[in-house]
Structures are given as C-alpha cells and as structure tokens.
Design brief:
The chain is an all-alpha fold. It has 14 helices and no strands. It has two domains: about 110 residues; about 120 residues, Leucine-rich Repeat Variant, CATH 1.25.10.10.
Length: about 240
C-alpha cells in the first residue's frame, strides 16, 4: 500500500469514527473511536491536524450527539484544544450533565481564552457547577480571578464559599491573601475550617514567593480568630 493510499485509508477511517461519535452512547464500543484517539495523539506534534481536529470536536459539542459523545470530545479537547474550542466548551458549563467535563477541559487548556471563559462564567452559574469552575480557577492559579472569588466567599451555598476560599489559597497572590484576611473576622462558623486551611496554603505560597510580610499579616489575622489547635500549630510553624 503506497503513501497516498495509506492517507486515504486513514482519512476514511477518521471520518467513519466521527460518524460513529455523532451517535455514540453508553454501551457503544470504544474501539470504533480509535482512529480519533490516534489522530489526537498525532496532532500534539502536527499543528495543522490539531486545528482540524479541534474544529471537528468542537462541532460535536455544538451538535446533537449524546452526552457520552460530548464527554469524549471534551476529553480530547483537553489534550489538543485551543482558543477555537473555548466557546463550545464554555457553552456547556451550565449543562448539568456536561459541566464537569467541560470545566476539566478548560482547566487544563493553557490559552488565556480558557481562563477568561471560566472567569466570565462565575456570574452565570450556581451550585456544584459554580464550585467546579471556582476550583478550576484555583488549580490554574488564575490571579486575575481573585477579586471575583473574594466576592464569592460570602455566598450562601457552603460548597461555593468553601471552593472560593480554597481557590484563593491556591492562587496565593497578595490580592488573594488580602481577600482571605479581610473575610476572616466575618466568616460563619461552618466556613472556618476551609478558610483556615486556605489561609495556611496561601501563606505558604506567599512566603515562597518572597511575600513574607503579606504571609505574616495573613497568619496573624488567622491566629486572632482562635483557630483549631492543628491550624494554630501550622500557622505558627509557617510564621516562624
């Protein structure tokens, strides 16, 4: 088989796999999607192929494929997705069946557009979907979201408030530390354990970044709230 024939065969197999993906559902054989898996692996070193696959996978998200098929597309876009795929992924953040998969993809995509989409969704989501996006921003250490996350510390949903505290801790910037410090005196009792842990994480990151003064101010504020013994011990250790 010559190179031209090989290329045509691969293209036909890929088209068949995408045709299968359009109706792929629970119980379907994953092997039928192997040509897509293979193409995605190759696309990590082939910019042109990457662009083509990104567009085709994004089209799956915008179409009428079953949720399982869209989860698969999100998984692949997490590997090769870029700015062109962001709108399709962002459109799923409010979908209860697909929010988790879309959030995971946007979390690991390195483009600025992915972070912006996560930030912009904060005002439109609630509950677990919102908590998931908040956690993703923390994992990305997205310093630009610190102000918006600070506003969510007082959210009445404890899942959201706890996620906001944790994300600010992971971001570990002076602005994030200041937000945690300012919220400490008014934190409801139920949030104090998560807030204490977030302050410890943030202080360690601040200290490692050369922001010893900001770290000390945050820990002093934490110690003033009479935290649990293990939080107090950790704060004193970091503050030493």
């Amino acid at each position: 088989m010559n190179t031209t024939t090989d290329t045509r065969f691969a293209a036909a197999a890929l088209q068949q796999a995408f045709d299968t993906l359009a109706r792929y559902d629970r119980g379907s054989g994953r092997g039928a999607l192997w040509p897509i898996d293979k193409a995605v692996a190759a696309a990590t070193k082939d910019a042109a192929l990457r662009g083509v696959l990104e567009q085709r996978l994004a089209a799956v998200l915008r179409g009428t494929a079953p949720a399982v098929a869209k989860e698969y597309a999100c998984e692949k876009l997490a590997l090769i997705g870029g700015p062109a795929a962001v709108p399709a992924l962002a459109g799923l953040l409010s979908n209860p069946d697909l929010a988790h998969a879309a959030t995971n993809a946007l979390q690991v995509m390195t483009c600025a557009e992915a972070a912006a989409a996560l930030r912009d969704s904060l005002a439109m989501l609630s509950g677990l979907a919102l908590a998931g996006v908040i956690t993703a921003l923390g994992t990305r250490r997205d310093a630009a979201s610190a102000g918006r996350l600070a506003a969510l510390l007082g959210n009445p949903d404890p899942r959201v408030a706890s996620a906001a505290a944790g994300a600010l801790g992971e971001i570990g910037s002076p602005a994030a530390g200041n937000a945690l410090q300012q919220f400490l005196p008014k934190a409801p009792p139920a949030l104090r354990p998560a807030l204490g842990d977030a302050c410890l994480v943030c202080a360690e990151k601040l200290k490692a970044a050369g922001e010893a003064g900001a770290a000390r101010a945050l820990l002093d504020a934490l110690l003033a709230t009479a935290p649990s013994p293990h939080v107090r011990a950790a704060a004193l250790r970091i503050n030493a």
